[in-house]
Amino acid sequence: MSVTTAKRQLAMVMDLNKCLGCHTCTIACKRLWTREEGMEYMWWNTVNTQPGGGTPRNWEEMGGGYRDGKVRPGKLPSRKDFGEAWEFNYDEVFYKGKGDSVHLKVVGEEPDWGPNWDEDQGAGVYPNSYYFYLPRICNHCTHPACLESCPRKAIIKREDDGVVLIDEERCRGYRFCMEACPYKKIYFNESTKVAQKCIFCFPRIEKGVAPACARQCPGRVRFVGYLDDPAGPIHKLVKTWKVAIPLHPEFGTEPNVFYVPPIAPPQFDAEGNIDETNPRIPTEYLHSLFGPAVDGALETLKAEMAKTRGGAKSELMDLLIAYKWTDMFKPFDKDPAKIIWT
Amino acid sequence: MALPALTRRAFLITAGTATLSLTLGQLRHRPAPGGVAAASAAAPSNAYTSFEDLYRSQWRWDRVAAGTHLRVNCISACAFDLYVKDDVVLREEQAAIYDQSAPDVPDFNPRGCNKGACYSELMYAPSRIKYPLMRVGERGAGKWKRISWDEALDRLADAIVSNAVEHGPESIVYDHGTTNIDFGPGTGAELRLFSLLRSTMLDSWAGVGDMPMGAVQTWGMFNVEGTSDDWFRSDYIVVWAGNPVVTRIPEAHFLHEARYRGAQLVIVAPDYSQSAIHSDLWVPVSPGADAALAMACAGVILAEGLHDEDYIREQTDLAFLVREDTGRFLREADRKAGGAEDRFYFFDEVSGEIVEAPGTQGRPRGKLALKAWRPALSGRREARLADGRAVGVVPVLDLLRKELERHAPEQAAAETGVSPQVIRKLARDMARAPASMIIASWGACKHYHSDLAMRAMILLMALTGNQGKPGGGLRTAAWWSLAGFEEFAAAKEQGLFEKWAMKIIGRPPVRVAEEFYTKETRTRMLTPSSLWLYVHGGLDKVAGKPELGDPTQGVSLDKAVATALDKGWMPVFPAPGKDPKVFIFTGPNPLRRWPAPQVIKETLWPKFDLIASVNFRMSTTTLLSDLVLPAAGYYEKIGIKYTMSYVPYVIFGDQAVKPLHESRDEWDIVASLAKRIQNRAQAAGLKPLEAPQGEPCDLGRVYDQWSENGRFKEGDPVSGMQYILDRSDVTAGLTWEEARKRRAVPIKSAGPYAPVNAIGTTVSGPGPVAPSQWFVAEKEPWPTLTGRQQFYIDHPWYMRAGEALPTAKPAPPTGGAHPFILSGGHTRWSVHTMWRDQRHMLRLQRGEPVIYMNPGDAAKRGIGEHGRARVANDIGAFEIRVKLSPAIRPGQLFIYHAWEPYQFAGWHGPHEPIASPWKPIHLVGDYGQLHYRMYYAAPGFHPRGTTVDIHPA
Questions:
Q1: pTM above 0.90, yes or no
Q2: All domains of chain B, ordered by start, with CATH?
Q3: pLDDT tens digits, residue range B299-310?
Q4: Mutation for B interface: A32, A103, A150, most B CBs within 10 A
Q5: ipTM
Q6: C-beta pairs of B138-142 under 8 Å, 24+ apart in sequence
């Protein structure tokens, strides 16, 4: 297992009970970082409906990460697994004199998967249907399997903030990192022949500005900060309250993105009456995603929600409410529009 | 693995935007092999490496401009910063500069959504219209000729002048949809010109299915909302018929944060919606059975004594006396010879007398406060009539209790699919919470009987005393009213004397304002679009089909329309028998929006000499028009995003870059068009033309009137902007220079009561705003016949239909006898058709339209996941992919809103099976609050609840 060299670690907490599934994060990232040739199909930030295939398709079953302290290569996701960047026949519909004999559609092969293909489908049987949204970025792991698997040593973990970056100058496109990453958050650029992924908006971070996915999130889902900053919300949510937990901890990479797990409304019995014997989202399913720590996190959340419902105050609830939005990002709370480039 | 993709660069070059592609290609200066990128000015915390500098340089810009999505018809208002490099808008990011309105509520930041965050993609997209175009083939054939602006405007001016002269000014029809407008100078200019031209203006508020008729029936107004941070103050939030997680993306966080504060969030919807997943209780109701559910809840609240009697006595008509013999209210005319029809009574338990209620339409000066009276809420009494006879009278509440017996939970369970246990819990929790709220928004208008549902929802809020509480009451949506915009758009400047008088006397009562708008409507050329399409568009052939009608109404739609026109309840221009000749639409997409567009294309389209589209992007209706005028995009002109009350700020958009290609600001298009019309009219020596109502139309002076003799000029939209700011008390004292720097400016007031602004609460400083304070706290009468929240409507048409009281009844099979219910909702992926064709949005869906279906239903029909199916009924059909989800209720087919018909085979879009008949009672125009005035109380559009079937295609 690689040794953590970062002095400090940047982290993100995503509150799944506030996620709107709106993909403003996805678009914010797309418009900032992945607009060049070769990057069209990349979505460094994704949001998927769970349960579901996800992005890339069935990534949770592709392997990677660590076993017994050793990197275990998994499957190399294909472009089709991620979903292609379909192009459309706009010109043919608008200007080619074909009238309603043609309609707007994907050019070429008909797609059968995409980065959000199974949106809002979920599982269960009506009315006990269930789903929730899971936004994902690179986890900037404490033990990045990608870094360890790269024979070119082209992947670095920055010392000051723990951001994991692919050195595109050193990268030769071998894609061992894509096999090793158990979260399958690395893409391959066919034009430049390098691997690319989320950079935690480090140019923004360096200027004291939160990543675009976090700062542009209208659901106010994402907290950003240093994991070891006791004054920041991340430390409180992850370490003090333990309501924010990593995804698939069993992959062994120690992710630095943490999730406040989802609470769904109660189920109904055969008569249509409220039935609270079992939660709507099966516990086993949440265990499969977050491990056993999800039980304690949900218990704490529910207990604190019960407190405020009874009229009492809760420091945890106040934290998650984030009365002042900029408190979610401190010290990365600068307004980017105020930056003057010289 | 390799993808032979059409790359962005290749595409842009093909599309002829060479300069743009160059700029985008230079976003990241990839160094030559072995080279080093130019050093960034950033002060990095880490040592520089060249690949990191590449990314640092990508996040650089030349300048930042204020931006917002001016004319997109989204119920939000979000300030964006536009990051501009080499005169290209690279990207946008929320300005996020809103303050907390009080320390105990969260702030509004950052607002925005996925669409707003990529308008900079859409503005440069292939759907962007670059040049004026003229059709050279058949309509819709896609054969165009590029023409000059001079030629385009000359053609339009010729058509307007010749048809106005030959067929009257009303033969020119102008449509901006519902609100494909901003509140800035460009839209103002457009409305101003067509007001002066005395063109027919389609009032589509109801025509798009956004008319909460139940609110009009009960309150006499409908745009009732406050700020969205007021949601945070609620203890029990019921989202009923809406889906704010998808449709109120900037506001939705307040709902989830309210939960953390201690509120319960309940979602009433047939499907396990995106909002339901974060709720404390999801109530899975049958589509269209909302009224039955609400009535059952009301029954529980009354039966268990959970209602607020003091509130009911003061704020509702439930104590008003109704005659047993006629079923009508006891009126002064019954009691005294020569008495009024609009004065009413209650029985005072203190004095034991029948007392005339203050504040009714016939006693407009009275207040609602009850003094020493205690109006009886039950019990039969005798009232003596003018002729000496005595009749039995009972309060409305007694009648209501009887009606509610028919809707007991056990009975409602069968209709709604909701168990009696859940109904009782919903009713009790709602009644017991300190402040309960129903967010109904525009969802509760889109079914045939939505008015009944909404009346019953308001009943719940009134019975529990919630309407008017902070964090309480039923909410639709509202706007801060920019009076200056209204004055500019209508070319009717309020005199200094009137302004001064308003300052001294204070705001007029809502009832007076309502009377003003009613009169004003009859000076304008507004025509309710549903009725217009029934008369001119061929919808009588489908919506008027007797077999699809509603037998409970006791009158056919055809006959009802004839009566309404005959009585002058509602205007239609041109009058039946005359044809509309020129159709100009500026942003909307009527052949996507209107019901049964295949019928309209066949009936209405041939009547037009000229169809002109002013838009920045290609829509289906633009493809079916004759003349296309390219408008500047949202970031290419100055403007004001329409001022939703959710956020107590006015949001401004600056011109970040010049209009792309040959597009032009609507301000300039209109100025230029007005000039040409005037020149032609003067050359022909035209006299003023009579309009069917209001002022005549003086084509020979229209530009002088529009420009106010040169005060407003082509190329100078700032003159219009400053006029709007100066004359709106919402923006008092603000200059445009300051506005464009500040991007989002806190409101100074809510603006005057207006058709878009029934907030009914005085706003004088920061703080969450709850609506309806004037009525509940200040005791001003509601603008209804009874001066109360009115639950009894004794108009003969309502009584004939059995709808004098709120009730519940099944909808007629509006698509014929078919087993599935076609329903839907707005999508997160577009704002109507804006962004529907945008490639990022499509890539995050399936690249083409889908319809959601329950897997069990699909199996029975032999339809597989992503299979192709045909949805059809007696009216029309379309083909579509099926997406299976257990979140969808069995029997329901769920299609998200506003796919472009050109995304379907043969351009047969999902409105083709929708006939959308409406209730004859919605035509009523001679009863208190029930009459047509601008944007109010016209027959609606009911895209949801149509009966259809589905089979594999």
A1: yes
A2: 1-59 (no CATH), 139-204+516-640+662-734 (3.40.50.12770)
A3: 999 999 999 999
A4: A103
A5: 0.98
A6: B138/A99, B139/B605, B139/B611, B139/B624, B139/B625, B139/B626, B140/A99, B140/A100, B140/B623, B140/B624, B140/B907, B141/A97, B141/A99, B142/A93, B142/A94, B142/A95, B142/A96, B142/A97, B142/A98, B142/A99, B142/B623
